[in-house]
Amino acid sequence: MAPPGNLETVFAAGMAGLGPFGPSPLLAVGVSGGPHSLALAILASGWALARGGRVLALVADHGLRAESTTEAAGVAARLGSLGIPAAVLTLGLAPGPGLHERARAARLSALAKAAEAAGAPWLLLGQHLADQAETLAFRALRGSGPVGLAGMAAARPAGAVMILRPLLDATPAAIETFLSERGLVPVRDPSNDDPRFARARLRRALGDPGGTGPGVAALAEAARAFGERRDRLRAAVAARLAGCTTFRTEGWAVLDAAALGRDAVAEAALSALLRALGGGAHPPARAAVAAMLARGGGSLGGALWRGRFIGREPARCAAAVPAEAGVVWDGRWRVCSVPDGGWIGAAGPGFAGIGLAGFARGGLPGFVAAGLPVLRDASGRVMAGPGPGPGWRVEFRPESGPIA
Fold first, then answer.
1. Helices 214-244 & 129-141, crossing angle to 10 degrees?
2. What is the pLDDT of residues 77-103, one digit of tens each?
3. 314 and 373 in contact (C-beta within 8 Å)?
4. Domains parsed from the chain with CATH numbers
């Protein structure tokens, strides 16, 4: 670990562990204007410029307060004055229950999509050592298992981009010092100290705003140990899946149950398959996965396992939506190209239209075919699919990320 007081060293070490990046890297950076993201944008800009690359700052406007639009524009203008180009993303969230969690999910989704659209394969976020400690404590209070207790990963996929967190070893105190030395005053979000929110109460209970105390250090170290355990499990899962599963690019799999086994690695491997093929935002409950593994089949998490096949459960497929380039249907399929006026939806039971005959000749079971996407016109007539057709192409790209 880099010396906690030297933010530049911590950042450089963090980036070194996340590469390689190649020449002239383009980095997207999520910036709220707060101390951590502001420092991250400055550090990332200098790092990229030194390598012939550049950064694009992405500022999310949640639209939850009357002044949020003006604040977001102010953050973008300030970044511009520092030589960092910025774009504002308008989210338009509605007030209501679970606001913090919904805002976090919406912000992350918008940032990832904007980074992809800009051609930036990496999206940097400013979480730090105290954030990691809070995450572990928060998840422990919610009863998370070992994977959840691993906290935030330094790198993880989000659609077509990789989320990177190079400041996970940095203390808030080091970040504040970095900005103070440069005469920069960050934006302070009052909700971070609002006791109505669970994380704010937890932060107050930890009582270590600078993140330099033994409690934060111990929690962060525990998250690191759980993270190493998670990485070992992922490697074992990848190896197990490679030996027992034939994955089809159409979004289904052939599974050798005997080769899968029935141990903890088998449970994790089956969970990963179910999440990707079922389009779930979260993995199914561990007990439910174990029960399915013991049965050797069934329905769980929007996926159906019958005999040697696992695919999307047709009855759980999302409703048809207007097909536009970039649209993700059913949490699994991204539209790449499409004729005007089309709708993407499930083929449905008994469908014997365009493209299905070839799948059927290959032994594809009916329930798998029924969950594949087709393109329809406004009247419901099938125009293309499930396979590619003229001007029509979709990719199986589950929002949960790659399997394993």
1. 70
2. 999 999 999 999 988 777 777 777 788
3. no
4. 7-228 (3.40.50.620), 237-314 (no CATH), 317-396 (no CATH)
